[in-house]
Design brief:
The complex is a heterodimer. By secondary structure, chain A is mostly helical. Chain A has helices at about 5-35, 40-75, 85-115, 120-140. Chain A has one domain (about 5-140). The longest helix of chain A is centred in the middle third of the chain and has 35 residues, at about 40-75. Chain B contains 5 helices and 2 strands. The longest helix of chain B is centred in the C-terminal third of the chain and has 11 residues, at about 50-60. Chain B is globular and about 35 Å long. At the A-B interface, α1 and α3 of A face α2 and α3 of B.
């Protein structure tokens, strides 16, 4: 049975892996759609990256299930949701919110300067809105707070 | 003294040592992670009243013996 410190570390690493997998999957997918009309090698690369990203996401889901089994075995649900964790989660949500809000407000003037498909930018921002809180929370959990 | 010039100090490390408790064992007794105890000890995280009371129960001292106000 894993101890609490190991479970905290495992949670952070699982979230980092999930964020990476989700990023590869979503950004490659956006790239693939963006390059659809041009075709060529880059389109192929984006297509294969989408497949790899999707498979990585499936692996990440498997890690989530495996992690939840470890937590149940250790009967550590409440301990792993203590007040420091709740504070870190709130910080991570806030970071995600501020990032997405800022990017949306940057997108509005950006459309005046450059000609691009807003739909791709919105998909990218939506993906960032999921990745940023996951990564920030994991980094806060891994951060060494000792002085 | 204005509140923004004060912070919460604590004698957690000292009291824990008196009872021969590690951060992990104290954390297990109050139902938090070791990191939470570590961040409280290092004044990185201010605990809730509930956690402060639980700590006082486990360490068998009044809350004000564990926590005090200090200048930033």
């Amino acid at each position: 049975m894993k101890n609490i410190d190991q479970l905290v570390h495992q949670r952070a690493m699982t979230l980092l892996f999930a964020a990476f997998a989700f990023g590869v999957w979503q950004f490659a997918w956006i790239g693939q759609d963006f390059l659809k009309s041009t075709g060529g090698t880059l389109f192929q690369v984006a297509g294969w990256s989408t497949v790899v990203g999707a498979l990585l996401w499936v692996v990440a889901c498997y890690y989530f299930v495996k992690y939840s089994k470890h937590v149940k075995q250790a009967k550590a649900c409440n301990v792993l949701n203590d007040e420091l964790t709740q504070r870190n989660r709130a910080k991570a949500y806030m970071m995600g919110y501020v990032t997405v809000f800022s990017l949306i407000w940057l997108l509005i003037p950006a459309t005046d300067f450059w000609d691009f498909e807003v739909k791709y930018a919105v998909r990218g921002i939506a993906a960032i809105g999921i990745i940023i809180p996951l990564v920030y929370f994991a980094l806060l959990e891994l951060k060494d707070e000792s002085e | 003294m204005p509140l923004d010039k004060q912070q919460l100090g604590n004698r957690l490390r000292e009291l824990r040592a008196k009872l021969n408790l590690t951060q992990a064992s104290l954390a297990a007794q109050v139902g938090v992670t070791r990191k939470t105890i570590n961040t409280v000890e290092n004044k990185v995280f201010t605990p809730s009243t509930l956690l402060a009371l639980k700590l006082s129960q486990v360490l068998e001292v009044p809350v004000e013996e564990i926590f005090y106000l200090t200048e930033k």
